[in-house]
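User: If only I could read backbone structure tokens as easily as an amino acid sequence. Those tokens are not coordinates but codes from a learned vocabulary of shapes. Could you go through the record with me and say what the backbone is doing? Here is the record:
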Amino acid sequence: MLKRLGIVTSSADVGYEYKRQLLGIFDQRIEVVTYSFDMNMRESIGNIDALLISTYSQYEVLKKHIERDVEVVISRLTLSKEGYTLFKDSVFEKKSALVNLNFEMCIETIATLYQLGFDEYELIPVYPNMESMPELNYAITTGEISHVPDHIEHVLDLGHRVIDKNTIVDLAIALNLEEVLTQKRVLAYFNTLASHNKGYEYFISQSKVSKNQFNTLLSIMDKGVLSFDNLGVIETYNQQAKELLGLQEELTGMHLDEVLPKHIFNDYMNKKTQQLNKLATVNDHNVTVSIFPIADIYTEDGASVINGSYAILENFEDREETQNKLRLQLSNKGHVAKYSIDDIIGKSTAVRQVKELVARMGNSQSAVLITGESGTGKELIAQAIHNASPIREKQFVAINCAALSANLLESELFGYEAGAFTGASKNGKAGIFELAHNGTLFLDEIGEMPLELQVRLLRVIQEQEVMRVGGNKIIKVNVRLVAATNRDLHSQVKQGLFRKDLFYRLNVLPINVPPLRERQDDIILLMDYFKSLSGFEYNISGDVMNFLSAYNWDGNIRELRNYVEYFDNVGTDMITMNHLPYYMKELMKEDHSDSQETFSGLNEKESYVLRQFYDAFKDKRKMGRRSLSASAYDDNVFLSEYDIRSILTALKELNYIHVGVGRGGSTITKAGIQLVEK
């Protein structure tokens, strides 16, 4: 299913340009809906997975029209390498108009150009309908040449600004398409972007940059920035820094150790080398701090001195989330839950009950234990639970406990340090508990886990902390656990094969996925769904559908999907009984060859059904169509739903049974009893 992305821009032309860029990046994974203010946008913005908005002020205007479940990303733009080179190689008037659609977009564009190193220009905002138009003969624009005033003679068009790398990453995350970030076309797109190689230090170190230019740049950064001199006195900062530190007062002129823990400043001043990702708690705010020296400057005698420093502040929780996503990208696994409740196909009562349970369990943080036979779709249920939960935007990490040996499973679950065992990576490896931090961890086939690992797993669940194999450091983790098994864990607990304490830790919210033979109403629906999914166009005869409806389906939905593919490879427009696989035909022969008692005037199947009613009468129990179907399955008798209805009608007309209504079931009559006992 394609993801739907909405784009809001000031003009339709800009929206179409963004659409062109993003369709090229995400290929066939998205469809794009554009909205623009110049087209008198009025409708509510919904039925989309994510929304890209040009500016924050546009978001403020539109937010009441945006549906709550829509992820919003504010776009950040840069120049293409082509536009950057054009500007760099141009000989142009240093005082020029910067033309864009409105004042806010002019300021953003000016800040982008300054950030790219074009700080020697004095750029004056010019936009449509401004009250006083400056008298300038030179203008620079980014694709808005139609808005350049007529009196300006010299125009340099750098082309539309392009969506920057950070925005692409944010959109990929919002659309649950993180896996595209490692694809060649996306990396190729990133390579077309002008690099901000000047960085923060360039603007802080260049004395010719005006305060207004620097403040403009700081105002659009989403991280906190503090610059300070060689004595540690703060010279400038942005609003994000104050918010992250929880401070209200003016910071300029304060010493750095007045706003950050002294040990961080002292460590930096002692070493005079960059300090990365130091955790600090300031006014109950957890922030990570990285400090960098400004690029060296030189005195008249050629001596090199440090020209101040700057600190980058980030919200610890935001950075932790970023690190989790980076870990997933580095592990090249793309841990994303693809399926939702809507992907649980079926109309039977059993399936409706499962859907209701999934919706309720999604809102909880408690552990879930999914039970069911092999092939019933337990992982689909697990993913649907994750996508119904408040943490659906977080990662979903799955591991099959039966697929790995005990030693490998341990290292996969808990990770390992460098040199922990022969063949271990020299860099060590994060375990899936770390990868799943703040998300959902799905333990498939939990019943196959060795007892010695069950002990470690139980401790991790209880303490919410993990220690890597060969390590001595405690790592805090926070995961929502969903486990699945096709085994009877109650029985395994009694046999000592599964720990009782772990079972009760996992079985907080139990959910059983019914086998396919207990949801016969869904078989035709599922076959049509898989046919449509694969683009198959053959038809199935009524006899085959009756047979499939009554088939045992030991492999459940996995087996059914295989048959859908098998029938397509038969190469005929109509599937008949002759096209069934050989083992299905053998099963039919076995069913018909089994010696069965028959009663006068009745065939084998009618006799079998009457015998079931007689046995129920003797046992003083009711017999309904469902219990009759279950008995036939246990006795390996082929009875379709159609067969049962027809037989009941025939026996009723012969006055051998009385067909009840509702839950009362049907009962054998006196005539029926006499026939069986004759």
Notes: Residues 81-160 form one domain. The chain has 26 helices and 28 strands. The radius of gyration is 34 Å.
